[in-house]
Write the structure tokens for this entry.
Amino acid sequence: MAIVVKRINANRQWYLWGILSGMGFTFGKMFKNLFNKKKMPTLNYPEEKYEYGPRFKGSHILTVKKDGSLRCTACMLCATNCPADCITIVASEHEDPEVEKYPINYEIDVLRCVYCGFCEEACPVDAIRMGPEWQTAGANGSNFSYDIKELARRPALKGGIESRLDDKERHSQGI
Amino acid sequence: MLKCTINGKEVEVKEGTTIIEAYKEMQEDIAHYCWHPGLSIAGVCRLCVVEIEGNPRLQIACNTEVRDGMVISNVSDKVEEAVRWGLDFHLINHPLDCPICDQAGECGLQEQYMKYGQYDSSMAENKVKKRKVVDLGPKIVLDAERCILCSRCVRFTEEISKTNELGIFNRGDHSMIGTVKDKPLDNDYSVNTVDICPVGALTSKDFRFQQRVWYLENTATTCPGCSTGCSVSVYHNKEGAYRVKPREDKENNGYWMCDEGRNVYKFVNKEARLLSAKTLNSGKLSSVRLAQALEDFTSFNREGKKVGVLLTGQNTTEEYKAILEMFAGADFFHWKNNEEKFNDFDGLLKRGDKNPNTNGLIETISNLKDAKSFNASNYDLTVAVMPENFLVYEDYNEKLESLKASKNLLLFSAAKLPKMELKTENTWVFPLKTFVEKEGSYLNHAKTERRIQKATSIVTEAVALNEFAAAVSRGLKININHHESRKQNEFTNIPGQY
């Protein structure tokens, strides 16, 4: 097999033009940002934070009922639908026969979670949502397996997000 | 024999066959709730309707016998329309409980809805509310709202268990199943009503909310609960077994099993099991790798030693053969739990002999002695195979205690052992496989062979007796095969290593 030797022609050999155009671009941007700070696209994280829209799929939220108890009925459809297999639910019998089944343990391994939102879509009772929070970084040794306390009652939720679907309303409508 | 055409295919069936039986024989799909092969015909659900040529009206397949030359179809538009409407009526008062209902995933109503329905309710009236979470005895919970009044459970208590606890009360919309004055539904076969319930109206307390059914696999095997050896399916996932259900077997158990047999999954799960092999190390039993314990035992010189073997009727025939070969010339003792009840029979399925393979043991080992005359101190080596279902052995702890007197002890146990202070010279303890982890056969009360299948592997270090015997006799030059289906690369199969 022949070897093709590529020879750079004379005007490409003279590289100063390339360097100068590159420098021009860099310094152009620098001076633009120096004198027009407001239009600068980057953020000074963590002092400045970007607010995503309400439909952003970030940290999971377990919604609550009007009385503050968990909306989740432990049907395990989210766990079944989860492609990363990161949801673990332990169901139990509730003392109130109207509720019947509820989760005594609900854990999401967020390090395995791919934030696809399939759990939210599978949920028949609007019990799990994906909220706008996105900063889930943690220091060494922090717990990345979120339990009910973290998912439903973390301080950022200000006492819990109420579910849209209420069983008592549903029953009073005769369904 | 009668000739008929079902969904365009010609078949021959026996005289007296109903149309639905012919469908089942052909393995054609037909919707039905109230019909059950083991029960009488009720004809109340109206879902098995078929179109018969020459007959202007649709007929129910469960209560119509096949006649010669009949042309039957259940795939026509007319039938589908009728089934759709039948389903619509069933769903009028059915609650939207599927997320919390245990039956979801194996529910007849759900399956039909996915096939024929998928529509929104068109009812203007409110749903009729009925009783929910009714405690119906020690094993069963009733949800009257979910019931579609197929009357299978009522017919079961009438015809099979003959206890007549259940009935349908009130009329029309307000009809409900229940027991008189909420008397408990408590007979030896009551959980069968849960199995035959096509919806989630009757649920088993034991299985309630433990697992969603679609997470469970099932394996066809034999119940080791008594000498009847019912055909059952064990439902399991990677964490263990969760329930046992009867499997159709017309010769042996029909479609049923007893409630006691449903507990057999409880002693196979990890919490109840001995997890590793143990050897005696400076007066204390300590856990070692299986390979280590096997090596330890093979280095023990058995030549000319007097051996006593204690066996129960809870192992497979293959295991008995292996142990007989391994300890040829030893004294074999048969440990019986309740000999006086061995021939008890309740007339349906349950037998007094709570060992699945008593006959297998007697047939395999001819010179068996009664374990009452067993004295561990008479032998140089005592081999004790503890029963896997130890709950039916009242003298389990006493026997375990009596083994302390042995000089050298080789102990097999599937169950977790209590703390033992041993004064033996050598002790080897091996975790034993239970019926869900091994293959083999039992010989039941009628001396017919009942096969057990390997369902899952719960304790990875466990061995069956025949595996143990093979490993010892070949000087550890084989691998103990936990995954029979998986073929091992011959280059990684180094003799003596596991």
Summary: Chain B has three domains: 2-90, 92-215, 270-447+457-473. The first helix of chain B runs from residue 19 to 26.
